[in-house]
Write a structure and sequence with these properties.
By secondary structure, the protein is α+β, with helices and mostly antiparallel strands. Helix content is 35%, strand content 25%. The protein binds flavin-adenine dinucleotide (FAD).
Amino acid sequence: MAVFYRRLPKFEYLQPDSLEEVLSLMSANREKAKIAAGGTDLIVQLRRREIPTPDYVLDIKKISLLKNLTADQQGLKIGALVPIAEIAASESVKKNFQALAQSSINIASPQIRNRATFTGNICNAVPSADSAPPLLVLDASVKLKSVKGERSVPIAEFFTGVRKTAISPDEIVTEIFVPQPASGAKSIYHKHSQRHSMDLALVGAAVYSIKEGDTCREIRIALGAVAPTPMRAAKAEKILSGHKVTQQLIDEAAHSAAAECSPIDDHRASAEYRRDMVQVLVRRALTEILL
Ligand SMILES: Cc1cc2nc3c(=O)[nH]c(=O)nc-3n(C[C@H](O)[C@H](O)[C@H](O)COP(=O)(O)OP(=O)(O)OC[C@H]3O[C@@H](n4cnc5c(N)ncnc54)[C@H](O)[C@@H]3O)c2cc1C
């Protein structure tokens, strides 16, 4: 426990006034600079010496253009500084992006949700990040900016390993874009943790689907905390896609999802238990939105 009371290591704390200033500091300092959004992951990691101490911590909270949450016919734009609590409270998120609303309300506590951001959650890139499975099934993309320009990375290509992402050392994330789901589409997120939402997910499962009559026209299934990166369960999707939905087919798909993930044994749960819970959560999510 003593580790929690360690002093912060020494670094220079900067609060740039503009995005241009942030980008030019990132370009000049690259790995030696670290962005702080809500700081709920970063400060803990610095205190515990889990990451190399940067020369500069760039607190970006003064950049007001990163604070916008907007929804229109194209989709949802989540600025890099939008707190998770705002996403959880948004009527348009609750109505059209149900899996995102369910994951937001299941992250940490109200205090943390008031500070922490979805962007920080994906940039931290732990396999259990609760925002990741919903963003995967909703086909989100991540907008990255540097002094050299802007690019957009599909969320499916964003996570490259445990705590590793496609962000270059001189780039920052400015926005997460979630396209408007097709008419009639539904999505759902289930999280299983040890006791309550303050605990990280042992397993997270998100499902997106469109049904036409009895037939599953489109299906996406994503899992968190059961592989080095959040993942799509492609074989399970194939079992259902284009077929008449039955409980038997749902059971088969849930079984397949459990077989395609690669969970680890650790102090929080065994791999076997996690695999069993994948099957339970995927079956529950599919049953809820397809039957
Ligand atoms: C008590 C507690 C409970 C928690 N419970 C959960 C939980 O249930 N589920 C869960 O998923 N997480 C949980 N977390 C983890 C954490 O709160 C989330 O990951 C949070 O979303 C991080 O957002 P932040 O804005 O605080 O990120 P920060 O700590 O500011 O940043 C995190 C990382 O992202 C980088 N970063 C941030 N913004 C940008 C940007 N715009 N561009 C480039 N890099 C950037 C930072 O440099 C840092 O490496 C918990 C944390 C605590 C302390």
